[in-house]
Specification:
By secondary structure, the protein is mainly alpha-helical. About 55% of the residues lie in helices and about 5% in strands. A two-stranded antiparallel ribbon has the order 1-2.
Length: about 110
């Protein structure tokens, strides 16, 4: 299978299972008949939010490293931190990270 557009077989891969004509005894049902998708979604939702929160943390760290780097580097006779386009990139990054924080905060679940 492909994950995020990449073949992940070299790292163990992901499995895809297909069940055909499978019957489950009524005594083994977790919920009602046909409720499987809703149960799976209820279980997967918090995991998705957790992954989003981790990625936001990584973005924060990358922004922090970018700010440190532009403070220590010089180009065209002045620190990168004083270059207008660099400030614009940093500001745009800050705005996008904040947008992501709010989207995750407001996500129902």
């Amino acid at each position: 299978m492909h994950v995020f557009g990449y073949d992940d077989a070299a790292r163990g891969g992901h499995a895809q299972l297909t069940f055909t004509d499978v019957r489950v005894p009524c005594t083994n049902l977790i919920g009602g008949e046909g409720d499987g998708f809703a149960i799976a979604q209820a279980r997967l939702g918090p995991g998705r939010i957790h992954h989003c929160m981790r990625q936001i943390g990584l973005a924060e760290r990358a922004l922090e490293l970018m700010c440190r780097r532009v403070s220590s580097r010089v180009a065209f006779g002045k620190p990168l931190a004083e270059q207008g386009v660099i400030r614009d990139w940093i500001a745009e990054s800050r705005v996008r990270i904040e947008q992501l924080r709010l989207l995750v905060l407001k996500t129902p679940g």
